Amino acid sequence: MSTIQPNIEQPVSEEMALVRRAKRGDDQAFEELVRRYDRNVFRIAQHITQNREDAEDVVQEAFLKAYSNLEKFQEQSKFYTWLVRIAVNEALMKLRRRKPERTVSLDEEVKTEDDSLPREVADWSPNPEQMYNQAELRDILTRTIQGLPPGFRTVFVLRDVEGLSTEETAQALELSIPAVKSRLLRARLQLRERLNHFFQKRASGDGHQ
Amino acid sequence: MKCSEFLNELTNYLDGALDARTKSDLDDHLAWCHNCYVVCDTTRKTIEIYRNSELYELPDDLRVRLRAAIMTKCSEHKKSDRQNR
User: Fold this and answer.
1) Which of B73, B74, B79, B84 to mutate to test the interface with A (most CBs of A within 10 A)?
2) Tens of pLDDT along A55-81?
3) What confidence score (pLDDT) does residue A208 get?
4) How far is residue A123's CA from residue A120's CA, in Å, rounded to a whole number?
5) Closest CA of chain A from B73, distance in Å
6) Burial classification of residue B13, based on how many CB atoms lie within 10 Å of its CB (0-12 exposed, 13-18 middle, 19 or more buried)
7) A8, A145, A153, A189: least buried by Cβ within 10 Å?
8) Integer angstrom CA distances of residue B61 from A35, A46, A139, A172, B66
């Protein structure tokens, strides 16, 4: 069975050259960094906050924070990983402000009884995405991922949607590597379980019912 | 190998992050355990569907507007920073 490969591989040296120019006060270099990563930051922010306006704010605040703290960036990680860390923190703050009744933390206690064990095992249609039109599919995927706890959702988005490595995800979220792996496994299994309902093979064929 | 042991390694298996010996043990398990095969296959599809889904793409007009707003704020920050020095 084929393995899942990360889908982003930026040449570090080019990125670092831009960062160094930006540190020397070259705003065009910083703007190039914005251009490079604004889409990623927006996706991550919207996945965490689940709100478009909040995501727009997070993009602006994260880049402004990166700009004003650029001197403090030690160049020990990729700039992108550092930026993601800032963006995740901003997004979690938004979420906390909006849902003060629930403490939102990446360290939230994970239930001890295993809520991720597969309960339903059924083959999926060979091309599950084609069982629905684009709008229906977006709706299914959005609602499904929104049902995950923020700590699981964030790990899944960074690792599987944005293609950060396990180590980069751990750095960005200030989690240990085993914690990232454990959350990723649970996130993947929970999403799979929830999508089962929509994507399993139907006796009458794959069309709409 | 038990199914629970297979599940514990599922993420490493899908990410290709296993030594040859462990991978071969997992392949053996998949060859006879249909349930684990299905869980593994549908988990892989789950990841691929989300990766290809393009949920929350940033529209071009909003992108231009956000970038302009960011650069304006940065330039204001620079000015006030200079004044404070």
Assistant:
1) B74
2) 999 999 999 999 999 999 998 889 999
3) 47
4) 10
5) 7
6) buried
7) A8
8) 13, 17, 23, 29, 9
Report whether pLDDT(A114) > 80.
no
ipTM score for this prediction: 0.90
CA distance A128 to A37: 30
Q: Is B68 on the interface with A (CB under 8 A)?
A: no
Residues of A in contact with B20 (CB under 8 A): none
Closest CA to A191 of A162, A170, A160, A166: A160
CA distance B51 to A104: 25
Query: Among A1, A191, A182, A181, which Cα is nearest to B30's?
Result: A1
**pLDDT tens digit string along A85-99?**
999 999 999 988 887
Q: Which of B35, B43, B63 sits opposite A192 (nearest CB)?
A: B43
- Do the chains contact at A181 and B11, CB–CB below 8 Å? yes
The residue of chain B nearest to residue A30, with distances taken between CA atoms, is: B71
Q: Is B20 on the interface with A (CB under 8 A)?
A: no
B50·A59 Cβ contact <8 A: no
Contact yes or no for B54/A161 (Cβ under 8 A): no
Query: Which among B15, B66, B77 has CB closest to A68?
Result: B77
Residue A52 CA to residue A55 CA, distance in Å, equals 5
